[in-house]
## 1
Amino acid sequence: MDRRILILSASVGSGHTIAARALEESLRNRLGIERVRTLDVLETTPELYRTFYDDAYFGLVEAVPWLVGWGYDANNPPFKLGGSISLWDRINTTSTVRSIREFRPDIVLCTHFLPARLVSLMLTRGSFSTRLAVITTDYDFQGLWLSNTFNHFYTAREETRAHLIGLGLPADRLTASGIPVRAELGRPLDDDARAAVRARYGLEDGVPTLLISAGAAGGGYALGIVRQVRELTADFRAVVVCGRNAQLEHAVRQLVDGHDRRFRVLGYTTEMPELMRVADLFVGKPGGLSASEAMAAGLPMVLIKPIPGQEERNSDFLLEEGAAIRCNYDTTVGWKIDRLLAEPGRLAAMAEHARRIGRPHAAGEITSAVLADTREQLWISHAAQRSILASSERGIAPSDLQADRRIRTLVDTGTGRSVGLITEAQRRTVAKGQRRQVDLGRGGRHPAHREH
Amino acid sequence: MEDDTRLTVSTEALSRLRRRRIDPFLLLTLRNILGPYTELTFDVRG
């Protein structure tokens, strides 16, 4: 039977939407699919709510980044806010729920936690049926992504998967897939294509190319980076991408006037995959998607001003793997890049590390797995959610919790796959209820037996 | 000796548990796990 697939994202920044598009692209020309639709759930919500989610968030990042970091940490333990969504979210997503229902998806893929939690709520109420795959878009896991039911959970890296297993989640429901990016990033350009891109942007062989993502860094800070790069002693070529920020593009152009030979200033471009594959160094913020794209292209990064919380953690991962350097001082960006360019061996080693951790085929691997997965969902009881939360907050394994609170995984005897998480106290309660039934002479069925 | 590595869940047992007013969210979870079946037996791990 041909299936209907709904990909849900939320346009808080561009990363979640780019990941959704990469998933959509990977589904193109696949057999057994009736229709694929990608929906930005914020487009279906009231303007006030949308503003709160998007503009207010980035306003806070700009004005009080420490508060954003605090908020991230405060909500980091899974199920801190329960396994469902708040009343505020429910009120504002009634149109979203209608859109999801009307599409009648056989499979839902979520690249943001809001729709993941929303679909989870719809499933829990029992009035809606689908398979739910949750795909995280940062290298670290944040608790908000975990809801009380899902079919499969895709993490960006192995350590995150190990963390979730450590909290009591069943391994067969978790895959370290990488973050979905455009697969072309992993395909090196051939000589002709490379030469054409270089010619188009005035890049020279033998002279290092910097790709500066100014749009993501935003406003005054982006100008600071360009000022620093302008003072490099090493020869270089820089492509400065300002995105849809026309004001910033104009300011950068004014700034580099007279330095045309070294700088090329762009607004929004569709050629990022090509630019990433001809550049030698990416200068910008470590958003989950930007970083994953750079790694897929084997492009080392200079990390600037990570947002406290997820970007700080992305930064940790990239530094730990040797694929990036980080500038903590606005004043030393140029100095650090100069030092790096003076050591071509080091730059080559960083590119090698980037390629090693890059996952250019993540989108295709995720959608192949989702299409092949015919299992029922995993359900997590409220008590088990509280045990996972306690485990996370206290930094101990669920097996070390008080005996009654230990997490027990229910495994389907037929398929050998996990279907539910309950606590030991809950298991005893159910076993007692079932025993009474057996005592009354109505039990005794074969263990693997299923009755409709 | 109770076998804590196996658990049978049935709609009948859930009805009895509901009458005993146990955690409604546990009942909801178990009902969702049962899906269209009236009885299922699980291995219990962890």
## 2
Amino acid sequence: MSILSRFRSRRSPEVACARALFAGQRLPAGAPASQQALARLLRAAAAPGTARELAGEVAAAAAFVQVTSQRKPRRNARRVLAAAACAVAVGGTAVYAGVAPSPHHKMVPLPFGVPAHHAAPAPAASRMPPRRPGRSPARPQGQATGRKARQAVNPAAPPRGGGR
Amino acid sequence: MLRAAAAGEEAAFARLWRDAHPPLLRYLRVLAGDRAEDVAGEVWLEVARGLARFKGGELEFRGWLLTLARRRVIDMRRRETRRPERLTADAAELERPAADDTAVAALDNLSTDAAIALIATLPRDQAEVIVLRVIAGLNVGQVARIVGKRPGAVRVAAHRGLRSLAARLGQQVTR
């Protein structure tokens, strides 16, 4: 008999007992008393839950409800944020593609003397008086320079050189 | 039941808890001792948070639950290592029940607590494997995945643990 077969024959009852114990089955006939005691011990260890072990069921269920109720709004908020991000991305793409009128069109300053493209009347500051030949470029009405401008900003200031 | 619980049904979760909590608690008693209840509460909170994303059957759920429990215990031990709370070195020995006392209690009463206490006197890797195999009802492959060992190592640890338990019980039987 080889060493391996001797080893197997010596171990096989023990292995068979172990398999039966792990499977929760009855031990083979003729199992030693210690194995029988072990089987009883493992059955006791794997017994159904005791009342003391199951005492926390209500608290566990309450904690579960609390956690799941906290989780739902967060998921909704995440969805709303995702939808808002999508809307911004689509809107921006549409603007650059020319589908929607660009807000920049209204912000571009109009050159003096050129009538606005809009149907609405231009503001008073942009209306230009007719240019006279041989003079400096006309300023819009209401825009003064030099002494008049300083007096407009600070009426209490004395006129330069004439305050004496 | 798992799907209903994952969808947020309280009654389904309660049924799940009733089935899975006793094995979890017994496993944690072997690994964490007196803190088993606290760790179990943390594990169930984690389950409640992640259950909606869980995919698998009842056996996979049990494996997931016990894996979470094991990770919690490892975290707890790390915290304890960083901030030890024990005042004396003898306290660890005092907390661990003597094998002879628990063997007598287990044979006399055959109560679940006494049986778990006797299993907890084994070396930790053997006790863990026996609890996972016998109490949680997991197969060798699942236990190997949970404890991070090869299936052969799990079988060896289980057989050694059973032999030690049988020897202790045999001493009590022959007395």
## 3
Amino acid sequence: MSNKNMQEYWKKNIRKVLSLLGIWFLVSYVFGILLVDQLNAVQIGGFKLGFWFAQQGSIYTFVILIWVYVRQMNKLDTEYGVNE
Amino acid sequence: MDIQTWTYILVGATFALYIGIAIWSRAGSTKDFYVAGGGVSPLANGLATAADWMSAASFISMAGLISFMGYDGSVFLMGWTGGYVLLALLLAPYLRKFGKFTVPDFIGDRYYSNTARTVAVIAALFVSFTYVAGQMRGVGVVFSRFLEVDINTGVYIGMAIVFFYAVLGGMKGITYTQVAQYCVLIFAFMVPAIFISIQMTGNPIPQLGFGGSYDGMPILEKLDGLHRELGFSEYTSGTKSKIDVFFITAALMVGTAGLPHVIVRFFTTPKVSGARKSAGWALLFIAILYTTAPAVAVFARVNLIETVSEQPREELPAWVDNWERTGLLSWDDKNGDGIVQYVADAETNEFKVDRDIMVLANPEIANLPNWVVALVGAGGLAAALSTAAGLLLVISTSISHDLLKKQIAPNISDKQELMWARIAAIIAVVVAGYFGIHPPGFVASVVALAFGLAAASFFPAILLGIFTKTMNKEGAISGMVSGLLITIYYIARFKLHWIGDEATSGPDNWWFGISPEGFGTIGMMVNFVVAFAVSKFTAPVPQEVQDIVEHIRIPSGAGEASAH
């Protein structure tokens, strides 16, 4: 793979990882910790929303994030011909 | 049949299974021993990683801890799962592409320095030994409660079993045994959880029952009400400061991503895409337990309060007597009325429960059949043994590979190295057993230390090794050393009270209000800052090392994990 392609592949990789980590930060640190009191004012299905994010929602999101990453990276690998 | 008989049957059957697998998957080469020949499917590896990761603490203690901490317990839930996102996105695929056996291997090669390798080996040994002592203790506790043997005998039995499959099978034996252990432990955790969820909320899925209704209102609202009545702080609010919750969560996440026994699992898949995928499977399997645990915590808390609070002691069920005999539960009739007062105020509170018994006692509290009670014992053993085996492997590999083969005696043959790996595993089992029988007084606090140290040392060094080409050995080594030192200092000062004036080591004197458990996050930041600063003023990274970095960033051509 040419040097220019390699740089491009790496840049796209970083961009994907950063956007997924943004969501990772949002659901745990923002919803589950920093804004927990504000979100707790909302009640959904027997849960205070902030509490739900801290003990359930963040974990579900984490699982989804990794699988989205797997899919996106497999696509990117194929696009740049670096898949195995 | 009684609980005792059921326990013998279930524990005996699961142990026979583990030993059978160990014999079937004996290791023939160092590669089998270290990374299971690099041929484990992502799904199997995900299962094994989940079992490796979920220790006696996750299985036995976590739900109990959350039950008593309420919202504050979220730090464990988010921290121990969120770390997998970091691991999957930032470390696992690149370390797999790098294709060596161990974490110190990566640090040593990427930073072209045996000093860096040695710092990494010491940190890996320290983290793993700390952790393994707790596991052997967990094995002892389960044995002593369910088989009514002495706690030390319990530890010996546990040692013998781990010895058998870790020494014989290495990573190959461990991986396939862990797959079986995951199945045992998740079954053992879910069955009582489902029973109790149906009992209390009518919903068979604990994650939904968690938000279900009890006594005409959402169960969480009911529990908040009970807490207010008895003077406890609201279950869904917690008492820790926001900054502390933030930093503890971060330390646990980064620490998780930096634990060598977890990282090394990703070296066993055949391809880079496999390493990514197996992190996904691992977190999925972990999440099943981690989303159930907070539900179990709430059910257990409500059940406990309703069963004991303001009830005549005489009329309490038999499980109270059973656990009172172990000393893990106690009642002291302070006002002499024969009725249990369970309240927040320490002056008038009469009832004490050890947090560790909540999961083990839960099936009895909820009056579940005897086989379920015995099943929980077998699950606890699976959790403790699988983690202990993974840690022992890291310890033996660090010694035979990172120290002996890579530094002291580079000329030994594959066969000799394998022999040394086995000898190191034997020694590690014995040392771990010793710590299990004679636990140092600070075991509970050193677990915080293990995470803090992993966060302050490995995570930044590996991350910088992959994502920058300019980080040199001087920067990485001084970063790791300063991160480690400041974290050790803070824990010695504010947690163990080994140094400094005891009078000024309380929470009021914590830096920025951060507890020792959360300080690993600061240690990590110090590591980053020092590493960058030092690398600016020292020699640049050699071209061939920059080429290694280029190489690990591209997934294709991973080949198999190898020693050279």
## 4
Amino acid sequence: MNTDALVVVLTAGLLATACGLLGGFLVLRRQSLMSDAVSHAVLPGIVLVFLLTGSRAALPTILGATAVGVACVLGFEALRRTGLVRSDAAIALTFPALFSLGVIGVSRFASGAHLDLDTAIYGEITFAPLRTVAMGGLDVPRSLLVTGPAAVLTVLLVVLLWRPLQTSTLDPQFAEIVGLRGRLAQRVLLVASTAVAVVAFDNVGAVLVVAFFVVPAAAAHLLASRLGTMLILAVTIGWVSAVVGHWAAVRLDSSMSGTIGLATVVCFALARLLAPRRGLLWRRSLKARTALSLRRMQ
Amino acid sequence: MDRLIGLVPLPYPLAVVAVGTAVLGFVAGTLGPFAVLRGRSMFGDAMSHGTLPGVVVAFMVSGVKDPVASLVGAAVFAGLAALLMIGLERAGRTPPDAAIGIVLSASFTVGIVLLTRVSQGGDADQSGLDAYLFGQAAGLVVRDVELALWLGGLAVLAAVAALRLLRSATFDPQFAAVAGVPTWAVDVASTVLLAVAVVLGVRTVGVILMVAMLVAPAVAARQLTTRLSGMVALSGVIGAVTGVAGALLAGRTELPTGPVIVLLATAAALASILFAPRRGVVARLLRRRAAAAL
């Protein structure tokens, strides 16, 4: 494996780590589509930061876009709390509006070389090795400088807040009773998810954000029965998809982000079919075996 | 058709776009309530992403950018996406919203992988397929409008004719099942109707924003009426009006059409949530204050 390939796989894998850990909680809390919504809603934030500062430096972009993403979540919460709109309709109402603002901003003020909508959507992970920052005489890829800390911080967050996150996800009422600050955990989870979605959007494109947040976690959900196992499996599936997807993309000469995303989907399909006890084929073969042994007994 | 467009007091190309967006807005607005009321608002999002591989496959099979072929391809794949979501939901363990996210990722990644293959072939005008993501209302021609009028008109008529069935399946699925309504058939039928709306609308506002065309008018209409028939009609009108207004406004300000239409529709929904006569947030606040004053 050459250096360029290593950078692509590491970028995707680090992001898959952060997304898989947070995605596990989102899937269990039935908030999977929050990642979809936020990944689109951050576009106006990125545009706004670009208009204000004239640059696409990593830190201000992440901070600004995260602020807009959090605003999207708050707007969605406010809509839901009126009791007039169901939560799925509230999501479907908030994020297209924000994305529209972003598209208008791009086409009006920032069209051209600086912000390219297509690459923002399709992802530009292929170019990750090319954008480097000089550090101590070494050319370090920018993507690793951002995704590395994102992954480390997410792991730290999940480890430090394990009890409140776990309890409020699996048994919200119990978490409230024992005073485990479930709502605080919820807020921290949403802000962290938004920040990670922004990092992912900026580095690999919107396609991979939903694929990384939802698909590995849902696949792991079919395979595991304990939260810890599920999260570790989700991260593993993410890394496997990064390696396999990259290999397949090079072999087939197709879109890097698209193929890595497709690899996560294939992992889910395999889990859906073959997972012990829960897989569809497993269930069918179990049924056949039971019928067979019943017939033998007669 | 030309006579109808001639009635519109606008320059010809603009009139085509205005009539086209009105028809598409009306169709999406009429069919949206059935998804919104069943808690399936985000179904439309996955289905509109599902049209992407459909269009690319249609192009790979037919070799030309034929509007009818791409419409059929898009419809087939949008329908497949919907069936896959329902299937994943039924298979258990995976929550419905995660099922939507999975199908959305699957269709979009397949679409992009296929798209890169097509554009490498060199015989494709990739920009034509690219415009699909963000929509291209300005590119509407008379043939598109005719197609939308026929197909959308049929779908709306079907929905109106089956309103009683759809109503019982929407509001009380258990009762409908007990009363002998074949709920799976109603499920399939309403999915097909949704697919028609999505497939027609995607051309104007694009894959990503399509879901707003289905949901925003329905949410706006919901606050103003308590009857399903009234909601469907009102939602259709709101969809048509925001469609035309958005297209004209976008043309005048030289902004992209899809986002302007979506912002107008969202504004209508928000205004309705705030100021609706009885259900609205402001009306409720005033009522509470009046009650407190007593």
